[in-house]
Design brief:
Blueprint: H1 3-7, E1 15-24, H2 28-40, E2 45-48, H3 55-63, E3 70-74, H4 108-114, H5 117-133, E4 138-143, H6 154-164, H7 175-180, H8 186-199, E5 207-209, H9 220-230, E6 234-240, H10 247-252, H11 256-265, H12 269-277, E7 280-282, H13 285-294
Parallel strand pairs: 1-2, 1-6, 1-7, 2-3, 3-4, 5-6
Helix pairs in contact: 2-11, 6-8
């Protein structure tokens, strides 16, 4: 039984999706696609990448839409070889977070190997403060490439949620899965983190699906309908990456055709129909922020 669903006014048997648009601010194509999806639905919320070159445009779009539900996509990696970004506090202030070119590392493994937690916290706080200063009514926190949810940084993630009184993308860990991955040592770390968050009223999500950008051309409809079908009861975080296809997106990423499909699916009638046929309700992260701040 999902206590969170009931706190949000749903029944215990409901299947509820937070339809979340990632990577806003990454590039112009991501901004156009994400705000199209958020304007039209069924996307319900999204998050901005403050260090990225097109963040200022994303903030401008957000200021034009005072009710838009946007969080901060806390960013410590830059996964592209030829399209780079780095820390908002500057490379000199957080040297353990940058490659020789002054940008964030491409892989999470490199980040974990090098990053000092005090520098991670300094940079992440600056990203949240940067979003607020740009006029975004920040509703939540989440994690680019999952980096800040890893054991070296998860306590920082939780502290920032408490400091700014925000919900975050956090799901009770599947301990069997962690053990199967050889991550037994992480089990108590996550258990303690979840207990601390719950004790102070931070909502814990019931499930998630991160299988965005995992389909061949022509396979988007079937793939995404399968994602919807697998969501369980309670409140689940459904990640998507809507962006407008074109030369810019093609030059940045080999996922362009998938991002373009997700723009039309999670920002159009086909996606709305698919969620309805799957029997899914939707909600944004602003509703969870109201729970946090009411407590």
């Amino acid at each position: 039984m999902s206590r969170l669903a009931q706190r949000l006014g749903f029944s215990a048997a409901d299947r509820i999706a937070i339809v979340h648009a990632d990577d806003i601010g990454c590039c112009h194509a991501a901004n156009v696609g994400a705000f199209e999806a958020l304007d039209a639905g069924p996307a319900t919320c999204g998050s901005v990448m403050v260090p990225c070159p097109w963040f200022a445009e994303a903030a401008g779009y957000a200021r034009e839409r005072p009710g838009v539900d946007l969080g901060v996509h806390l960013t410590l990696n830059c996964e592209y070889a030829h399209y780079r970004w780095g820390p908002v506090v500057g490379a000199a202030a957080v040297p353990s977070l940058v490659d020789p070119d002054g940008a964030f590392p491409q892989t999470v493994a490199t980040l974990v190997e090098r990053a000092r937690p005090d520098e991670v916290e300094r940079e992440l706080r600056a990203q949240i403060e940067g979003a607020l200063a740009a006029g975004i009514d920040v509703t939540h926190l989440d994690a680019h490439m999952g980096a800040v949810m890893l054991p070296p940084f998860v306590d920082i993630y939780g502290r920032l949620a408490l400091e700014f009184r925000l919900p975050l993308f956090v799901v009770r860990p599947d301990e069997a899965v962690l053990r199967a991955l050889g991550a037994e040592a992480s089990v108590p770390v996550y258990r303690r983190a979840i207990e601390r968050l719950e004790a102070v009223g931070i909502p814990i999500l019931d499930g998630f699906d991160d299988r965005s950008l995992h389909f061949e051309p022509g396979g988007g409809e079937a793939h995404n309908r399968a994602r919807l079908a697998k969501l369980g009861t309670g409140v689940s975080y459904l990640i998507c990456h809507p962006a407008r296809g074109g030369e810019e997106l093609d030059a940045i990423s080999d996922t362009a055709h998938m991002r373009e499909f997700e723009r039309t699916f999670y920002g159009g009638e086909s996606g709305r129909r698919a969620l309805a046929e799957a029997g899914l309700r939707t909600v944004g992260m602003r509703a969870l922020r109201e729970l946090v701040r009411a407590g």
